[in-house]
Amino acid sequence: MADGNSEIPDYARGYEGFEGRVGRTSSQSTPWWKPEPSAPAGAPNIVVVLIDDMGYSDISPFGAEIDTPNIAALAERGFRLSNYHTTPVCSPARAALLTGLNPHRAGYGSVANSDPGFPGLRLELADDVLSLPEILRANGYATYAVGKWHLARDANMSPGRTRDSWPLQRGFDSYYGSLEGLNSFFYPNQLIADNSVVDVDEYPDDYYVTDDLTDRAVAQIKSLRAHDADKPFFLYFAHIAMHGPHQVKESDLEKYRGKYADGWDAVRQRRFERQVAEGLFDEGTPIAERNTEPGYDAPPWDELDVAEQERFAKYQEVYAAMVDSVDQSVGRIVDTLTELGELDNTIIVFTSDNGGTAEGGPVGTRSYFSQFVHGPVPSDWERDVPHDEDLIGSAALGVHYPRGWGQASNTPFRFYKGQTFAGGVRVPFVLSWPDGLPRDADDSGVRRQYAYVTDLVPTLLELAGVEAPTERHGKPAQSRDGVSAAGFLRDGASNSDHTEQYAEFGGHRGFYREGWKLLSLHRDPDRVDDPEWELYDVTTDPAETHDVAAEHPDVVAELARAWDEAAWRNTVFPLYDSPADQGRRRPDEERYSDPVRILAGTPTLERYRSSKLIAYRDFDIEIELRDWTRADEGVLVAHGDPQGGYLLCIEDGTAHFVFNSYGRIARVSGELPDGVDTLVLRAVATPQVRWDFVLEASSGGQVEVIAKLDNQFQLVGMAPWTGISVGLDARGPVDLELRERRGVFRFGSALRAVTYQPGAVRVPAAIRREIDESAEYHAD
Fold first, then answer.
1. Where is the Sulfatase N-terminal domain (predicted)?
2. 530 CB contacts (<8 Å, ≥6 apart)?
3. I need a surface site. Which of 329, 337, 505, 549 has the fewest CB within 10 A?
């Protein structure tokens, strides 16, 4: 039968985009398959291991006494970049590392926790920004990510929000880890597998997050090889370590007991001597003096009393053991590649996102989230809640070392994470690829040429022999700022093509050009655009010990102009002369503080949504019961973990309210009346950042106050860390004693729902801003 188009030959019919031949039947047609992306023959695997908050000297190839044989073996087979720089904090470094764009151009002038409404701080990757996994996947690579992400705003970590800046939407085939800027090592508040929250209520007794991430990374490699013998892969392993809170397995800690009794001054000196001996610096290079600037200072070790020395040494033992655990993880990846016969054709990079940190303050802390709370809070606020010192490093505490150890981490440099001085931005970098970058016997493998975090993408693309697409989702892709370091990796006599680089974070500025480095330390918000410039010749003074600004005013003026031009070009402006401006969030986030009724059995709420229901304000928690009898018991509602939180449970016919104030536990109880159908916990906030609690029970309309707890420090900043769970105390336990006795202590069918009714905000805006700004900065 004619179809009305008989004048068109059958063989000429077809479909748009199909390059075969289509007739009326298959015997008249020619099939065609769209070619899959294919990597160049012999393309190397690529593994990038990124550590969080680890300073320049914390691994043995860069001077440390810490046992890191697996990383040392990579350095022996490959190269150490002794003059590699990154950004002052984490989210900007990760954005630059994965895109090759300068951080502000990528949208990450700061950490991914706010959204003040300007291009340099949008804190989400734009649609026209290509990522390294997207490029490699387009060239035939399998792409995997495990660990810390922190490139999605915290407001977008909950169901129903955009996932545009989540790992799978940015080129990874699979992801497992934490979207947060930090996490507990024993009780992560939320883990993500691909695009979904991992459904876990309780972690195994032997759980440790570094081991979990390593298990997943090894499994991904093995699984790929079981299915495809030839496809190269990219593994981005972004450790949650070494970010606080510092927690470690006892089996790793034992090795370092007693190793740091002589203190940070002695450790710095010995590390620097090793660095010089290894050729990272020349003989006669000056080491920075111990930091003495107010707010950054570290006391001489010998001036501490014995109790302080003993506690501070324990903090560093924990830190060293954590570095050791990271090295063990690297060893497991290397062993897997060796077993597969692929180690020599794998590019392995090991580096850190920024320098060692001072966030533990002058004396460290056993209560990490309490330490975050700065600003005009009451004078009796406890930033170091006392605990049994034998628990330092365990799941029970959230500890962080004093900033004297932070400067030891950054040996031989000044300052810390967050500043543009070398202590904040100069970190170790190791690269190994025996097949593609073999090292001559007389080559030390040390490369002193300048390199910056944006250089990693073009370097890896050149070494792997792949080209980047020119578009992303139909839009022209933004051009990269980084330049390849492959030239001086292959030939140590070659120069770096990266000749200048701006830096900025929180008003701190820096500008590098061919050996000169211009710096400013930002102190006064009113003078954010009036920097006090310092100038250093970092070819002879890499630790920035001698300011020569007065001797070279022409160089200062030239580099200051260059910084200004680069700032405009890279969307650094506006600079923030008000903390309220930088901490601003999108207006639509206010709906997160609307009342919510949570049915029993609802998965644990995400941290940020949970915090909006209680932070700085009055709130009521109404618990609905049905047909309750004295046989019904368990946790009704829990919010938080060992680092701070609260829970309400029923045990033996009695209601128990537990308040964990950054590790200090308070408990009150009240006998329940027969036939109780409603419990209400009322929290009244005070301007002094306190809460007064009242617990009421209702039976047949009769209301009775059964317990009170007054004058408790509010949970603010980053606490509570684990979100709200209904009917159990999920993930990290608010009350360790209860967890040991009853586990997660599930409530039965007598629990219907829990309703949160947020009330008035009582803490003054100025105090809230300072606390939130400090918490968001330290959460990176």
1. 44-466
2. none
3. 549
Q: Tokens at residue 510, please?
A: 């820096």
Q: Is 562 exposed, middle or buried (0-12, 13-18, 19+ CB in 10 A)?
A: middle
Is the pLDDT score of 2 beyond 50?
A: no
Residue with tokens 């062993």: 335
Q: What are the CA-CA distances from residue 423 to residues 53, 151, 198, 460, 652 (Å)? A: 11, 23, 37, 26, 56
Of residues 774 and 550, the one with the higher pLDDT is: 550
- Written as six digits, the tokens of 376 are 């005009």
Angle formed by the axes of helices 306-339 and 263-277, nearest 10°: 40
Supply φ then ψ for residue 490, to 5 degrees: -75, -35
What is the distance of C-alpha 414 from the center of its chain? 23
Q: Six-digit token pair at 86?
A: 């990154």
pLDDT of residue 84: 98
Q: Per DSSP, what are the bridge partners of residue 511?
A: 502, 518
The angle that helices 209-227 and 306-339 make with each other, rounded to 10 degrees, is: 10
Residue-level pLDDT at 114: 85
| Predicted TM-score (pTM) of this structure | 0.96
Distances (CA, A) of 694 to 76, 251, 624, 712: 63, 44, 17, 12
Separation CA 513–CA 237 (nearest Å)? 32
Give the pLDDT confidence of 651-665 residue by residue, as tens digits. 999 999 999 999 999
Whether pLDDT at 378 is above 80: no
Which tens digit of pLDDT belongs to each residue from 582-634?
778 888 888 899 999 999 999 999 999 999 999 999 999 999 999 999 999 99
DSSP 422-463: HHHHB--EEEE-TTTSPPPTT---EE-S-EEGGGHHHHHHHH
Contact by Cβ (8 Å): 64, 422: no
The question of whether 150 is a catalytic residue gets the answer: yes
Cα of 456 vs its chain's centroid, Å = 19
Other beta carbons less than 10 A from residue 207's beta carbon: 15
Residues 6 or more apart whose CB falls under 8 angstroms from that of 596 comprise: 613, 755, 756
Q: Verify whether residue 649 is a known catalytic residue.
A: no
pLDDT at residue number 375 = 66
From CA 455, how far away is CA 668, in angstroms rounded?
57
- pLDDT for 582 equals 75
Tokens, residue 283? 């003989």
Residue showing tokens 């493998």: 445
Please tell me the distance from the alpha carbon of residue 440 to that of residue 442, in angstroms, as a whole number.
5
List the catalytic residue out of 104, 150, 239, 508: 150
Per DSSP, the three-state class of 762 is coil
Catalytic option among 90, 508, 639, 649: 90
List CB contacts of 699: < 8 A, sequence separation 6 or more.
673, 674, 675, 676, 677
Q: Are 343 and 334 in contact (CB under 8 A)?
A: yes
Report the first-to-last Cα separation within the chain, whole angstroms: 71
R_g of the chain, CA atoms, integer Å: 28
The closest alpha carbon to 660, from 679, 681, 633, 639, belongs to 639
Share of the chain above pLDDT 90, in %: 88
Q: Output DSSP code: residue 43.
A: P
Tokens of 227: 């299915």
* Residue 134 tokens, joined: 């997207």
How many CB atoms lie under 10 A from the CB of residue 146?
Answer: 26
pLDDT recorded at residue 13: 61
